């Protein structure tokens, strides 16, 4: 910063920002400050497919929720497919960090949280919603529904594991893949979202407290 | 946005005001130049400067060293904030940030901001010319042509492979070439831009 003595914009901004940091520090870990209020699609915490990720939904938050049971012998599998898409399969709710690292290697920034049954991450966690791109969003498939809908984002439930397919290009401008599951050993529910902008750390809350206010409909 | 910060400490800046201040002082000028290459209104530039650092505070705990050093990470955060604002303004919206940067400006600050914005007018015209590009290609071109990052660094900021970034850069340049007068260093420093 400059060497002159007058107080400048940068100094005043620093004071204001330090206050924000101090507020966060003062808050208990369970009281992480929420991002600017930006509507995100509420997560349906129901044992069925709630909606698919919009294929071109730059920054859109979208979620799939589906049931699962334990299957397979490794916790997860991430593989690049011939068409360039990346298939993610979660078989067991362990080693979230490992899954994050594996996705990062393939160019997909991810936040993965595995929670006990009945818990979800407090919403909203995502700071930005897209420009009118809240695409996707079939109202819900049946239990065990096998397809999430459009584009290259598909969510499947088969063979006892949850899987979905991603296009790396959709993460080119800083989008983050957010995965949150419930279940102690086996998956009982999973939320998958592609979001733009910062993602707050997961603050576990009871799923009952996080029921969507307006289930089924995009918030904008 | 030099590459000097200690990556391991970045997560602390969300909770420790002292650590945040070190990071802020190191990067605030670069962030303001980054914004001046994209925004011509000094009041909006001040708001966005505040927005970028609020986003830094919000997302620092999610920082992971394998995604790039803090300077590159900051480029990514700033680009996201600016891109989100661009999309909103295309719809005639301006989200109210948590912190109104413009309220912190005095006359001298405005003069400094305008000078910085004037100095970046070439870059800004290039930025505006990028409106026709697909987002993925635009992202690479911005970081390389506007911000001077090596392609490999831009790739890391965007979380894509360097080869992929080079392909996008090539496509982006090809699409813009017919609208930009060739310059000796490619389109990074166009002497004349739009009609």
UniProtKB/TrEMBL annotation, chain A:
Keywords: Membrane, Transmembrane, Transmembrane helix
TM region(s), chain numbering: 49-70
Record's compositionally biased regions (Gly residues): 134-148
Transmembrane helix as UniProt keyword: yes
Region of interest: Disordered: 132-161
Protein name: Uncharacterized protein
Automatic annotation (TrEMBL), chain B:
The RNA polymerase sigma-70 region domain, residue ranges: 23-91
Domain RNA polymerase sigma factor 70 region 4 type: 124-176
GO process annotations (BP): DNA-templated transcription initiation
Name this protein carries in UniProt: RNA polymerase subunit sigma
InterPro entries per UniProt: RNA_pol_sigma-70-like, RNA_pol_sigma-70_dom, RNA_pol_sigma70_r2, RNA_pol_sigma70_r4_t2, RNA_pol_sigma_r2, RNA_pol_sigma_r3/r4-like, WH-like_DNA-bd_sf
A GO term, aspect molecular function: DNA binding
Keywords: DNA-binding, Sigma factor, Transcription, Transcription regulation
Record keyword RNA-binding present: no
Family membership: Belongs to the sigma-70 factor family. ECF subfamily.
Pfam families: Sigma70_r2, Sigma70_r4_2
